[in-house]
Amino acid sequence: MNFYDTWLHREALSAPWMLLAVVWTLFALNFLAPAIIWSLLNGRRPFQTLWERLLPKKNAEDRAPPGAGASSDE
User: Which of 4-8, 49-53, 60-64 holds the top average pLDDT?
Assistant: First the structure.
């Protein structure tokens, strides 16, 4: 059976959208690989610092419902 004459090769694998998807995926992996490897070697989650800067953690007082904190009446 000639693989190049099959529907899978003609319509899916050699379609322009599939080739572009493969190219952009490889480009993205190639671009992000140094950051991912660096973070894995340092024992940190990938892009942890970026997430910490974009989404700072709130204080425990900010998360507590009203009236649940220590009162100043004592």
Answer: 4-8
Cβ(18)–Cβ(12) under 8 Å? yes
- How many CB atoms within 10 Å of residue 47? 13
Say which amino acid occupies 29.
L
pLDDT at 50: 74
Give the Cα separation of 28 and 7 in Å (integer). Answer: 29
Nearest 5°: the CA angle 20, 22, 23 is 65
d(CA 11, CA 26): 21
Using CB atoms within 10 Å of the CB of residue 74, give its burial: 0 to 12 exposed, 13 to 18 middle, 19+ buried.
exposed
